[in-house]
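Fold Annotation — chain and its backbone
Next Lines — sequence and tokenised fold

***
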Amino acid sequence: MLGSVLSLCSAFFWASAVILFKKSGDVFSPVSLNIYKSFVALILVSLTMLMLNIPFFPDKPLNDWLLLSVSGFLGITLADLFFFMALNRLGASILGIVECFYLPCVIFFSFILLDETLSIGAIVGSFLILTAVFVGSMTKKTLNDTPDNKSSLSAILIGCLSMGFVAIGIVMIKELLEQTDVFWATLVRVMAGTVSLFVIVLCHPKRRQYLQELKFSKAWFTAFPASVSGNYLALLCWVGGMKYTTASRAAILNQMSTIFIFILAAVFLKEKITVNKSIAILLALIGACLTIFS
């Protein structure tokens, strides 16, 4: 039950972060914002470990450090890079649908690497949640924006690749998480992702622009709450959910983030709850209950 609760909390905190970013506006370029969020997570996780007296350098085999580092590189550096590439070329609504590819990816990698299987209730629950995301995301604007050229189709493939990296990045450390402190595992992943991002920025032709954007400014304060919610609370709950339940079950409940966005956007951004979104919320709630209690 703890893993399911943490997975739902992760979805909620990520949805809250999306709303906060919408309210704060575009204050950084995607690359700079990615580095900023990673730094915030790195600092907060480190401070939490200090307060809880969790060792930064536990007596762990080198393979554990390497596995977590590779996980961070795949799940943070590469996944976010491809995600923002797709975001720049696709509408947000279409990309939201593309993100649904995360769930089948986790289920696939969990079956291949961990030999996990889903109960009938979880299978039905995952189908209902995926259906809910599609129903809630489909609007006239979405349909009008449907890609009809090779460039957009390639962007969809890039978005799917991003979800694949996120999925393999977490599934590959599932067994390690079961015997590892969540905070330390998160710290190593974020550290590896942050260092990799800095290397990419330093080698990028626009590195001067990106580094300039990272200088202290009022933009830091607008992006900070979203970073705390999305890259600290959501990240810890996401890793914790993977630790305390099966990867497939956690992924199903993580997909609830889109449904939470519908609800939070209505409350804080005064966006209208359409018939589609109402049906989506109902389907998703039923799907989540089936997944948790099956």
